[in-house]
Each structure stands twice: as C-alpha cells, then as structure tokens.
Amino acid sequence: MNSLFSKVLIVAAHPDDDILGCGGIMAKFKNDKTVQFKILFLGEGSSCRYDKNLINTEEVKQEIEKRNTYAKNALKILGVSEYKFSNFPCGRFDQVGLIDIGKVIESEIDTFKPDAIFTHSKEDVNNDHQITFQATLQATRPGAKNFIDKVFCFEILSSSEWRFTDSFLPNIFIELSDEDIKLKINALNEFVSEIKPFPFPRSDEGIKTLAKYRGMQVSKNYVESFKLIRGFIE
Question: At CB < 8 A and 24+ separation, what contacts does 189-195 make?
Fold first, then answer.
C-alpha cells in the first residue's frame, strides 16, 4: 500500500518534463483512486527555439499550443485530467521574477492542497529547471505552506545526466511494472517534436535504460527514482 502521498502536485518547467520525471508513478497509480495527480506546467517549452524577436509571432503561438496539446494527450494516457499551463517563456525563466513564479506555485498549493510535491532537481543543466526547483522550495517552505508533507525532486533525461559536475543522487525508489514502463513510453511518444532515436536520451530505449539502471541499484527490474528534499513523519 502506498504511504508516501495521496494528492500530488507535479511542478514541471515544460510540457514533457512531467512524463520524463514522473510518468512511471502516474502510470503505476493510474487506477488507484486513493492517489490524485495534478500537473502545473510553468513554462511553454517551445519559444526558446526561436529568436527573441519572433517569440510573439503566430508561428510560435501555434507551436506552444501544439505542445500543450501533446501534454494533454500524454496525460490522458496516464489517466490524469487535472493540469494548468502558465506559459512562462521557455528558456527565459531568469527574466521572470522568482517571486512571480513562486506565487503561481503557491496559488496551486492553496487550491489543490497536495500532501506531496514533485519537481525538478537543482542539479539539472537546464536553467529553467533550476529556477523551478528554487521557486518550488520557496513556495513550500514550512512556515508558508506547512501542510505539504513531502517535497521530492525527479530526474530528467537529457538534462540531469548532462550536468557532469554534479549528479542526481536519488534516495527514494518506486518499483514499476512492464505495463507502467509501456504507458510512460506511450505518453512520452505523444511529444512527437521531442523524441529522437537512441542513443538520444528521450527515446523508448532511453526511458527503459534509465528505469533498468535505477532498478539495478535496488535489485528491481524497473524503477523510477526520486530525491526526498524534505519529509514529515508523524
């Protein structure tokens, strides 16, 4: 029986980070009515591929909407129906006030009232991910939102493992089944613009390889791993 969480808010920098980081546990608890997930997407994930003077064009707006549609379709596969898109500018979180990002997270905490939050690791190479971690840490500080029991970090293929000077060091391991991995891969494949053939990390084999590696660390076939940043035990 799961005792780690019952209401989970996943704070993701961009659409697809939620699947890469937590797709396995969303699949694992897809049919478990005692666990509820909601995804908060802080950034839109597409405009960073364009010159700054183009980010307000119709073409970029269509790409953002397309990626948001991918996210909705992916979450439908995993049985998750609650999500919110904030659409902060991709790759430019450092141009947004940290307090403004934090306020968005705090608002979702107020309305959804999760007992656990999953978000990015500070060790990621992606700057938006690092800022997301810091904003989440500030939004969940015990004096402000003391009903948050646990704060976890997840790892993101093509970001966490490319931070060569610092490593993601998990301390929580959740076993996944073959079906869980299949659902995670199917969900990720909805993001057709983000998938490339192996050895690119965001690929079917990349997902399986990481799950097997983390599983090998704890003598399981497949695992999704996390780092517990803060936890409260009664």
Answer: 190/70, 190/71, 190/73, 190/74, 190/77, 191/15, 191/16, 191/19, 191/67, 191/70, 191/71, 191/74, 192/70, 193/66, 193/67, 193/70, 194/16
The Cα–Cα gap between 217 and 172 comes to 11
CA torsion 203→168→17→41, rounded to 10°? 180
Q: Which residues of 69-98 are buried (b: 16+ CB within 10 A; e: fewer)?
A: ebbeebbebbebeebbbbbbbbbbbeebee
108 contacts 66 by C-beta, under 8 angstroms: no
* Spacing of C-alpha 46 from chain mean position: 16
Q: Is the C-alpha dihedral spanning 65, 35, 207, 40 positive or negative?
A: positive
Q: What is the pLDDT of residue 80?
A: 98
User: To which residue do tokens 């978000």 refer?
Assistant: 119
The structure tokens listed for 65 are 């909407």
124, 125, 156, 167, 201 from 162: Cα distances, Å? 8, 6, 10, 9, 10
Structure tokens at 228: 């517990």
Which residues on neighbouring strands pair with residue 200, listed in sequence order?
none
Look up the pTM and report it: 0.95
What is the predicted pLDDT for the residue at 234? 67
pLDDT digits (tens, 9 = 90+) for 57-86: 888 889 899 999 999 999 999 999 999 999
Distances from the Cα of 65 to the Cα of 31, 32, 205, angstroms: 29, 30, 28
- CA distances for 52 relative to 18, 57, 61, 214, angstroms: 26, 10, 13, 39
Please check the confidence at residue 146 and state whether its pLDDT lies above 70.
no
